[in-house]
């Protein structure tokens, strides 16, 4: 042994440490990879040793190698080993390595939970600190859930060093485990006012980060932040807060008004540029939010712009950059104040720093007007020339196009100029944006009718000079424009001066080197040109031109027929044959032009980009529905796919069909017709309300305004220089101005603005710049009754979506952070109106029998499902673990002093575990499902039971408990506490149910059995642990029972047993007999109550049923112990089989229409409560959710655990409530209705 | 939030990489390379911000960097961080390194990357700024180093006992 140790340490002396490794790598520059691989082999050997120091050294080296790009995940387990060393040195190495290479799919992470928990509670603050730091990098949803409570405790640690780390890491915990946000938030809020500035800063940091994503939930914190802003001197904190205000002001303009003054003061007083900049930014945000409502804040705008100008003029490039950035924000709402600084911004375009140039470009985008567009673009074109061969040039190009085309070409007054700009841009070599230019050309040519002639001429020139563009095939990005050119020339060929020439240009052999899709367009459009040529020559006696054209086509097309590109080949061969045929006809002197032109007749109209998406789904068409029955999962994969789409017999049976006699055929046809008629998915031939968009007659409806050409179109010779247009334009404007003056002198009244101008949205100052042509742009087509909504959905994968949680509502019992204990899976869903998250729970004492009322409403949003799954996962993982927890620390803001005092009153010292379980019970999510059972207590026949060791298997069961002791005193206390609870909840109700009276408290707890020792209350009898599982193999129902110790003795060895019926069985751990009881996994000290959950399997759910059961337990006094027994009856109502399931109104309507449901109805007389109370009661006690509510009528929906749909239509008038119900299972429906009736008869 | 902190030298050799979001090793190296290319081709007296590369972040993210002698310090941050604030933070980081290593140079970072990590851990945690006060950072770093030393001492003495 000693020898081994000595050997180990000798080995160690020869081990490389990190420095040696680094040195070695530096000395092996030639064969680094080889050297490292030998090092990794050494490390592997080192990791095999027992000595933790050796391991730590190895892990330290791995961390370095990881940085160099080597995968070290294979050592994850060793890292965990090093993390769990008791020595800080090694622990730190381990955590560092983990933080560098662990992530959510690292499977050993789940082994670390306990180690991290231990470190978190270490007496050494640096152990804790290191664990927190590490955890912040690799926290997973599981870790977050398991450790949330521990970390929350650390937020109140005595050492600020720990507090600030714990506060910061909470953000990560929230992200991974959104359920923790509400319970932890009050404490987080407290930390905003922590005496330590570091902790305060951390809290501000976390809340800012949260609020940035979901600002509306944090509006209520504004006053607190306002206070902080005016009191804090820490610039970091101030910056964060000011940034946060920037996010909040758009939601609350009043806040903005308040902010202006202190922010202005800060701007004047601070010397820190960073703070000044953020203040300016937030003032801008405020101004933006106010711009609609408030008339005048020009002073503030001026201040901002002025400060920003100072920044931009600063020699520090960083300030210049930020100044421009902020300027672009002002631009959106106050363009005029920015436009006055145009000189400065144009100057920035010359800056040597590309980031600054790009920012300046962004600004230009917003600064253009009709007046200065040409001038600005001219400047940009100069820059384009200068920026030869850089990505910046591409950026310039896109910006020019963006600037010109923005808001539907709003600022373009002269489209000839724009076309010539586009043509000039085609001369850029090596740009990637050929397609962008092409699409602009197409767009303008199609939508601006007046420009077509000009555009066609330009495009023809382009085609003629195509060789200039395609000189180098490597940089063929620009040849995309030929696509547009060819199409425009073909489509609008009637405007061509010399179609023959263009035709020739399009059929040059060189074209075959162009990309396939462009060739295809060439071929197709050459046919259009050909048609035009024929048409133009028709009637001429001299047919040489047409024959030349045909011959040209016939000569040149074979080249394309050989093309490797399918599209080109197909079109070419088709057109070639066509032309050959035409030539034949021509030779017979047949007039063919008309027919050939008809091939290309009709006009193409622009279609809005979103038009397709906006075609409304016809009524009754469900795109998600299966056309036929979905294939059952058992079917093997290699099954013929056609089986999915048709129920027809397989192919080989086909011959049989022919043998079917006429009669049979007729019958089948009839049946098919019938089916089609009834099948909403069958698209019928009958005229639908939908418009047929291909219909050419629709063209007339497009608002195209005739163009009034005030200036004759003039095509400057050769390739046009856009500059000429600038000059022309200036002259024209002067002329117009002069004319206008004259006119005004003559007649003031005459105004030209009324003349069909579409863009009167331009600024007033531009009124005097009339566009050269009254150009009207053909609007894009949209389908009729297009859906107006442009819902920009948030990215569903955004983790912050889950954190959109209302934080102002008090916590419900069910929201406490999970504490490690026997946990029941919870799948409760309950109704939510308006998609709002409502949480409420209230309890009210009612005499000794304690008919506690409890009400809970829970949100049903998607994270619930998630949490459910997580909980389940977690349950599995921790089956074997049993540990005490710091449950006592859990405080609920709703339950105030009473609650805490009660927790304090618990005998914490006697048994930590006891406390833990109690806390667990309080923390555990309580389901709000109702069931009414008659109290049934028969305390006799003590039965012996043996104490069973707590079996971990019990944890599979859903369990939950509560206890109470000391008969009177304590109970009073307890009731008192409950009362306070109810008060708290009621206030919640006030908050959530808008303008309606608060709902009376409701509870699903009912007394199950009681004797002098113990009281059992059943809370609910419905819980589905896993919807999938339950749909397949029967259903599970969970019963929560609160056990309350009423005597002064210790209760232990409680065993819960139920006599199974044929239909319902208590789920017992594997291996136990059908009559064995379940051990309740806790003991009850005097005055304690706890809750346990029991899972039942139910076969048929259509009938309510009762189960007899017994609870046996040992009453232990100081000197003696006795066995006691308590009988009870469990009542499973039909409602307890219903699960609140949300349903959308359209799905609901479909369900009702389907005709599968049987209906039934009841009337309730003398119901004397507001309608919303009534609905709430049905929702709460019977697990329905409201689908739609209109006045005094509401439709409700629920679903049984076996998938039966239950639909209700509830109407009320005077004191009569009528409920019409539909369900696919009439017996179930009848029972549910009876139960509803009973519920209302009791109140 | 800070998404990543990278230190590399004038040749693009990584000296420290800290990602607050998981990427696999290859992607990490690619990000380092890409960032190096973006940053290294910039002149000395241009602004210290640049819109992020394609790999890291996206439109909401910025690279904020400083160049000291042979080393680039690059922070990749989103819009919730103040640009000038992060520049200050880099300065604090470098000054802290300078204090802890006594005239820090690239070699210190090369051979003691673990220590640099530990210092950084006192400034930034999980992508959020933890502490900006240099004295506080140094106090905590020193205290931990002291602990480490005392442990090594104990360890060595026990070994000698054997």
TrEMBL record, chain B:
It is found in: Cytoplasmic vesicle membrane; Golgi apparatus. InterPro entries: AP_complex_ssu, AP_mu_sigma_su, APS3, Clathrin_sm-chain_CS, Longin-like_dom_sf. Its main location: membrane. It is a peripheral membrane protein. Residues 1-147 form the AP complex mu/sigma subunit domain. Keywords: Cytoplasmic vesicle, Golgi apparatus, Membrane, Protein transport, Transport. Coiled coil: none annotated. GO terms for biological process: Golgi to vacuole transport; intracellular protein transport. It comes from the Eukaryota. GO terms for cellular component: AP-3 adaptor complex; cytoplasmic vesicle membrane; Golgi apparatus. The keyword Zinc-finger does not apply. Part of the AP-3 complex, an adaptor-related complex which is not clathrin-associated. The complex is associated with the Golgi region as well as more peripheral structures. It facilitates the budding of vesicles from the Golgi membrane and may be directly involved in trafficking to lysosomes. In concert with the BLOC-1 complex, AP-3 is required to target cargos into vesicles assembled at cell bodies for delivery into neurites and nerve terminals. PANTHER family: ADAPTOR COMPLEXES SMALL SUBUNIT FAMILY. Belongs to the adaptor complexes small subunit family. This is AP complex subunit sigma. It comes from Kryptolebias marmoratus (Mangrove killifish).
């Amino acid at each position: 042994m000693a020898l081994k140790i000595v050997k180990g340490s000798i080995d160690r002396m020869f081990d490389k440490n990190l420095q040696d490794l680094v040195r070695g790598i530096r000395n092996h520059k030639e064969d680094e990879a080889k050297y490292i691989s030998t090092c990794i082999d050494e490390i592997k050997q080192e990791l095999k040793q027992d000595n933790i120091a050796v391991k730590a050294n190895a892990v330290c080296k791995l961390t370095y190698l990881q940085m160099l790009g080597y995968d070290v995940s294979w050592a994850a387990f060793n890292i965990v080993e090093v993390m769990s060393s008791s020595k800080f040195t090694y622990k730190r190495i381990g955590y560092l390595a983990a933080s560098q290479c662990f992530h959510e799919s690292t499977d050993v992470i789940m082994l670390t939970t306990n180690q991290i928990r231990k470190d978190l509670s270490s007496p050494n603050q640096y152990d804790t600190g290191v664990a927190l730091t590490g955890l912040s990098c690799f926290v997973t949803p599981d870790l977050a859930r398991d450790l949330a409570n521990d970390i929350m405790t650390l937020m109140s640690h005595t050492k600020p060093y720990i507090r600030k780390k714990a506060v910061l890491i909470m953000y990560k915990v929230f992200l991974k485990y959104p359920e923790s946000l509400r319970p932890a938030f009050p404490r987080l809020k407290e930390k905003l006012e922590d005496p330590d500035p570091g902790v305060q800063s951390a809290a501000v940091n976390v809340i800012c980060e949260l609020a940035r994503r979901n600002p509306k939930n944090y509006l209520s914190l504004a006053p607190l932040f306002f206070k902080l802003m005016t009191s804090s001197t820490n610039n970091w904190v101030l910056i964060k807060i000011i940034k946060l205000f920037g996010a909040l002001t758009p939601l609350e303009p009043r806040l903005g008004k308040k902010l202006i003054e202190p922010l202005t003061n800060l701007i004047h007083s601070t010397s820190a540029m960073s703070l000044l900049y953020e203040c300016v930014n937030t003032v801008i945000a405020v101004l933006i939010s106010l711009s609609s409502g408030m008339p005048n804040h020009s002073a503030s705008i001026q201040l901002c712009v002025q400060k920003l100008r100072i920044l931009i003029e600063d020699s520090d490039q960083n300030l210049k950059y930020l100044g421009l950035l902020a300027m672009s924000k002002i631009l959106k709402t106050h363009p005029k104040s920015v436009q006055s600084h145009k000189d400065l911004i144009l100057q920035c375009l010359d800056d040597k720093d590309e980031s600054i140039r790009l920012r300046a470009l962004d600004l230009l985008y917003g600064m253009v007007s009709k007046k200065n567009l040409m001038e600005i673009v001219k400047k940009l074109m100069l820059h384009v020339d200068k920026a030869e061969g850089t990505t910046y040039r591409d950026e310039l190009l896109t910006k020019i196009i963006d600037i010109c085309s923005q808001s539907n070409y709003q600022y373009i007054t002269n489209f000839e100029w724009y076309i010539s700009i586009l043509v000039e841009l085609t001369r850029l070599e090596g740009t990637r944006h050929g397609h962008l230019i092409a699409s602009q050309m197409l767009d303008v040519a199609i939508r601006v009718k007046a420009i077509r002639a000009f555009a066609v001429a330009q495009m023809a020139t382009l085609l003629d000079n195509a060789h200039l563009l395609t000189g180098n095939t490597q940089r063929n990005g620009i040849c995309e424009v030929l696509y547009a050119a060819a199409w425009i020339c073909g489509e609008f060929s009637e405007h061509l001066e010399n179609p023959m020439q263009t035709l020739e240009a399009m059929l040059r052999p060189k074209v075959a080197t162009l990309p396939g899709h462009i060739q295809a367009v060439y071929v197709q459009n050459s046919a259009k040109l050909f048609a035009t040529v024929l048409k133009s020559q028709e009637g001429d006696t001299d047919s040489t031109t047409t024959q030349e054209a045909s011959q040209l086509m016939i000569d040149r097309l074979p080249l394309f027929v050989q093309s490797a590109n399918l599209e080109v080949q197909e079109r070419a061969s088709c057109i070639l044959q066509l032309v050959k045929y035409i030539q034949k006809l021509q030779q017979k002197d047949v007039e063919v032009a008309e027919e050939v032109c008809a091939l290309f007749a009709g006009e193409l109209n622009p279609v809005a980009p979103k038009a397709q998406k906006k075609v409304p789904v016809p009524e009754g068409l469900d795109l998600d529905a299966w056309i036929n029955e979905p294939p059952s999962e058992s079917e093997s994969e290699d099954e013929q796919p056609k089986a999915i789409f048709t129920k027809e017999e397989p192919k080989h049976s086909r011959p049989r069909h022919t043998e079917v006699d006429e009669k049979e055929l007729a019958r089948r046809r009839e049946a098919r017709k019938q089916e089609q008629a009834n099948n909403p998915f069958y698209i019928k031939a009958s005229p639908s309300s939908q418009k047929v968009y291909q219909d050419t007659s629709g063209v007339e409806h497009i608002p195209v305004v005739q163009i009034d050409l005030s200036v004759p179109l003039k095509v400057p010779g050769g390739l046009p220089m856009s500059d000429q247009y600038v000059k022309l334009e200036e002259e024209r404007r002067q002329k117009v101005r002069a004319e206008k003056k004259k006119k005004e002198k003559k007649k003031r009244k005459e105004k030209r603005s009324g003349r069909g101008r579409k863009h009167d949205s331009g600024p007033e100052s531009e009124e005097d710049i009339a566009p050269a042509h009254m150009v009207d742009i053909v609007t894009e087509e949209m389908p009729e009754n297009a859906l107006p909504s442009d819902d920009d959905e948030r990215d569903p994968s955004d983790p912050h979506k889950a954190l959109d949680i209302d934080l102002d509502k008090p916590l419900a019992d069910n929201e406490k952070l999970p504490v490690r204990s026997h946990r029941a899976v919870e799948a409760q869903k309950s109704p939510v109106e308006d998609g709002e998250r409502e949480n409420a729970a209230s309890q009210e004492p009612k005499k000794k029998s304690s008919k506690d009322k409890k009400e809970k409403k829970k949100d049903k949003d998607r994270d619930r499902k998630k949490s459910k799954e997580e909980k389940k996962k977690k349950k599995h993982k921790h089956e074997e673990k049993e540990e005490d927890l710091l449950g006592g620390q859990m405080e609920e803001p709703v339950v105030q002093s009473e609650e805490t005092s009660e927790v304090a009153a618990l005998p914490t010292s006697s048994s930590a575990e006891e406390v833990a379980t109690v806390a667990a019970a309080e923390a555990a999510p309580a389901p709000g499902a109702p069931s009414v059972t008659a109290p049934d207590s028969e305390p006799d026949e003590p039965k012996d039971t043996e104490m069973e060791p707590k079996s971990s298997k019990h944890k599979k069961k859903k369990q939950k408990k509560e206890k109470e002791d000391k008969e009177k005193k304590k109970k009073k206390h307890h009731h008192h506490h409950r009362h306070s609870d109810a008060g708290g909840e009621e206030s919640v109700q006030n908050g959530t149910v808008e303008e309606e009276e608060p709902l009376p408290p409701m509870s699903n707890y009912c007394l199950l059995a009681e004797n002098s020792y113990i009281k059992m209350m059943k809370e609910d009898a419905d819980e589905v642990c896993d919807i999938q599982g339950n749909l397949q193999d029967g259903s599970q129902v969970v019963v929560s029972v609160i056990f309350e110790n009423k005597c002064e003795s210790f209760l232990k060895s409680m065993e819960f047993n139920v006599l199974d019926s044929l239909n319902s069985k208590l789920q017992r751990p594997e291996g136990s007999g059908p009559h064995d009881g379940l051990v309740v996994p806790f003991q009850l000290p005097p005055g304690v109550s706890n809750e346990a959950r029991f899972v039942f399997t139910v076969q048929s759910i259509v009938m309510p049923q009762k189960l007899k059961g017994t609870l046996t337990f040992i009453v232990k006094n100081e000197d003696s112990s006795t066995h006691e027994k308590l009988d009870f009856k469990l009542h499973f109502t039909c409602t307890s089989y219903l699960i609140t399931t949300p349903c959308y109104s359209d799905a609901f309507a479909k369900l009702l229409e389907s005709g599968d449901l049987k209906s039934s109805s009841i009337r309730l007389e003398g119901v004397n409560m507001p309608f919303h109370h009534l609905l709430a009661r049905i929702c709460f006690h019977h697990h329905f959710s409201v689908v739609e509510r209109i006045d005094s009528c509401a439709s409700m929906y629920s679903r049984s655990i076996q998938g039966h749909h239950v639909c209700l239509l509830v109407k009320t008038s005077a004191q009569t409530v009528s409920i019409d119900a539909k369900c696919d299972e009439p017996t179930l429906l009848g029972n549910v209705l009876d139960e509803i009736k009973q519920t209302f008869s009791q109140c | 939030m800070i998404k990543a902190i990278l230190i590399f030298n004038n040749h693009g050799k990584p000296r420290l990489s800290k990602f607050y979001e998981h990427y696999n090793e290859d992607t990490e190296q690619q990000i380092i390379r890409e960032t190096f290319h973006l940053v290294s081709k910039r002149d000395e007296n241009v602004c210290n911000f640049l819109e992020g590369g394609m790999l890291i972040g996206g439109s909401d993210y910025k690279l904020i960097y400083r160049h000291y002698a042979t080393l680039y310090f690059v922070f990749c941050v989103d819009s919730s961080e103040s640009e000038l604030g992060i520049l200050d933070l880099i300065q604090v980081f470098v000054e802290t390194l300078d204090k802890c290593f006594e005239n820090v140079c690239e070699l210190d970072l090369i051979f003691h990357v673990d220590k640099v990590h530990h210092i950084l851990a006192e400034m930034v945690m999980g992508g959020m700024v933890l502490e900006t006060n240099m004295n506080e950072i140094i106090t905590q770093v020193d205290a931990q180093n002291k602990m480490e030393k005392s442990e090594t001492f104990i360890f060595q003495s026990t070994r000698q006992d054997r």
